Amino acid sequence: MTEQTVASGATGLTAWSSREDGYAYGWADPDLAGMIAQRGLDEQIVRDISASKNEPAWMLTRRLEGLRRFQSASLPSWGPDLSDLDFSQIKYFVRSVDHQAATWLEVPEHIKTTYDRLGIPAAEQQRLVSGVIAHYESEAVYHAIRADLTEQGVIFLDTDAALREHEELFAESFGRLVEPDLNPFAALNTAVWSGGSFVYVPPGVAVDIPLQAYYRSNTENMGQFERTLMIVDEGASVHYIEGCTAPVYSTASLHASVTEIVVRRGARCRCTTMQNWSNNVVNMVTKRAICHENATIEWVDGNLGAKVTMKYPTTILAGRGARAEVFTIAMAATGQHQDAGPQVVHAAPHTSSAVIARSIVRGSGRSSYRGRVRVAEGASETISTVKCDALLLGGASRADTYPHADVRAEEVSLGHEASASRVGEEQLFYLMSRGIPEEQALSMIVRGFIEPVARQLPMEYALELNRLIDMGMDGAVG
User: Fold this and answer.
1) Which of 135, 211, 326, 452 is a Cys-bridge partner for 355, taking CB atoms 3.0 to 4.6 Å apart?
2) 111 phi and psi, to 5 degrees?
3) Domain limits of the chain?
4) H or E stretch at 355
């Protein structure tokens, strides 16, 4: 195992690398919890998960409904190949600790070492975040939030704790945006969800420094199914950041998360996700937000790893003057297929949306942009712009665009631009003629390509992204 200086999580501290291809988070801890975890899924597994968490009866009912929906559903026949995903081999619940630590010193040593490497404690100590939740396997192992935010009524808990401590508030929004019949993986998550973040920001409260959650899976054939629920009340604002990593294994693991966000009148929410999974992970994500009158949702999404990613963050602009802004980056190398694209539903007049998507494909990797804009009847004076561009770095690289527009109102301005290009020899020659090595020159071109999205990231994440690009260009030329 070799040590490399790369920005990690939100800190820019030292990470560790166990592979030559630049993936800096591929080590595995002792898999004691995973060794005794049961493979496969049936009704008893679902009942056991619910019982182990001492959940109310209504949640068990929801879980069993999700299981029935999943068992009767068919996997999508379009998009990436999912034939290698064997649900009978997945471990659907892995409990790594018997209780959540009250302080960082109480976290088990091997887990603490992992998160020290990822830089999570330093992020908290340097006040880069207002609150932090560290998830390991299926549950949160550590949680903290600034005292002044708690005094203002801000709730930032892992989702399991939120169900116990704020059941009424939790129940109002759980499953309202993402119902189990939405897609097979939403159904699966409903059945076996564990962990995730619950955020509630009271009216008029501004959370000035981001809240952060970090997800780490360790077990081979692990299924991670966090459920995140956010409620940003009238006139409030918050920035929530989440990051994900996993060890490198020879067989597939599954990540099937669900995020539901409610942004009430005049509120603003920014949700930043940086997923840098190892290339044995199948990443199936369902995200939905609803924006009420004059509310704003901002999605900043980075998909930098995984064997397969299917992710289509959806926003419903339900109130007059609501707005959605979406910035996405996808990087696909050989053996990876990134299939993603935001979906926006304009359900009220005077709403607007803007999408900027960038994808970088090297080797024989593949990216697909699968975005959709729908303007409902009566949603007049709507404005929507979409710009999606792909940069191809190899002769076998592939990028596809599948845009969809459904306009059922008048006085609508809708634009879509898409492009796919390769790095030109003239660009490389110009930079190399100034004494810049070829790989460094290619990195500079790629950084310039993704700049419109990268500048939306917190500084620490932007540094990590630049470092990942530099590592990713190794061997991409010549």
Assistant:
1) 326
2) -75, -40
3) 7-311, 426-478
4) strand 352-361
The C-alpha atoms of residue 252 and residue 250 are separated, in whole angstroms, by 7
The strand order across the sheet containing 352-361 reads: 139-145, 131-136, 211-216, 237-245, 268-275, 296-303, 323-332, 352-361, 382-392, 412-422
C-alpha to C-alpha distance for 190 and 415, rounded to whole angstroms: 36
pLDDT band at 313 (very low <50, low <70, confident <90, very high): very high
Calculate the CA 168 to chain-centre distance: 27
Q: How far is CA 7 from CA 120, 121, 133, in A?
A: 11, 14, 19
For residue 170, give every residue at least 6 positions away whose Cβ sits within 8 Å of its Cβ, in sequence order, or none.
162, 163, 198, 229
pLDDT tens track for 401-433: 999 999 999 999 999 999 999 887 788 888 888
DSSP secondary structure string for all residues of 248-269: --SS-EEE--EEEEEE-TT-EE
**In this structure, what DSSP letter does residue 305 have?**
-
Q: Are strands 223-224 and 281-291 parallel, antiparallel or unpaired?
A: unpaired
Distances (CA, A) of 319 to 56, 200, 296, 323, 351: 33, 20, 10, 9, 8
Nearest to 162 by CA among 228, 215, 212, 101: 228
Token pair belonging to 242? 């989440």
Q: What are phi and psi of 82, to 5 degrees?
A: -110, 15
Query: Tokens for 67?
Result: 């299981």
- What's 101's DSSP letter? B
Say what angle helices 459-472 and 438-454 make with each other, to 10 degrees: 150
The answer to whether residues 362 and 476 touch, using CB atoms and an 8 Å cutoff, is yes
Residue with tokens 């459904």: 406
Q: Which helix (H) or strand (E) holds 167?
A: helix 167-173
Query: How many Å from the N-terminal Cα to the C-terminal Cα in the chain?
Result: 28
One-letter amino acid of 30: P
Question: Could you tell me which residues are beta bridge partners of residue 368?
Answer: 339, 400
**Residue 185's pLDDT is what?**
98
CA dihedral 138, 143, 149, 155 (to 10 degrees): 30
Helices 184-192/43-52 angle, 10° precision: 50
Bridge partner list, 400: 368
3-state DSSP helix/strand/coil % of the chain, to nearest 5: 25, 35, 40
18: tokens are: 């166990």
Using CA atoms, how far residue 96 sits from 29, 34, 108, 139, 413, in Å, is: 11, 8, 9, 8, 51
Which of 63, 43, 40 lies closest to 53 in space, CA to CA? 63
Lowest mean pLDDT among 17-31, 115-129, 184-198: 17-31
